[in-house]
Each structure stands twice: as structure tokens, then as C-alpha cells.
Amino acid sequence: MELNELAGYGYFFATLFLVVATYSYIYHLYSKKKDATGVDYEHYSDMALKDDIGDTPVKPILDEKEK
After folding, report:
1. Domain boundaries defined on the chain
2. 24-60: per-residue pLDDT in tens?
């Protein structure tokens, strides 16, 4: 086995590992939308686009009476 053949196998397996790791991470992100406390942060992703003074808040503000 020459060095070029070994490098080819190494490149193939490294690429395969990175593809599997990337898809696993993407699946993890979309299957676990809530963190450990149960908060879903996906609705915060649009906050940078909707930051005008007249826009509705991302999370509604509750009065002390409603708590």
C-alpha cells in the first residue's frame, strides 16, 4: 500500500465521517427545538429582522396581575 492509496482512503473516510456528523447535528437541531428548561428558542430566530419600534415583541410581556 503506497502513500497515495493510504491518503485516498483517509480522505474518503474523513469525508464520510464529516458528512455523517453534519447530518447528525442537523437532525439534533431540528429534533430538539426546546432546551432543558423547555423553552423553544426557534421563534427568536426572526428577531434580528423584526427589530423596528412598532413591531410586536417576540415574547409577550405579562403584567404582574396575569402572573
Report:
1. 3-46
2. 998 887 777 666 677 767 777 777 777 788 887 777 7
Three cell numbers, residue 66: 396575569
The whole-angstrom separation of Cα 49 and Cα 67 is 29
DSSP codes joined into one string, 1-67 = --HHHHHHHHHHHHHHHHHHHHHHHHHHHHH--B-TT--B-GGGGGTTTS-STTSPPSSPPPPTTT-
pTM across the whole model: 0.53
For the CA atoms of 45, 19, 14, 16, the dihedral, rounded to the nearest 10 degrees, stands at 170
Looking at per-residue pLDDT, the higher value among 65 and 21 belongs to: 21
Paired residues of 40 in beta bridges = 34
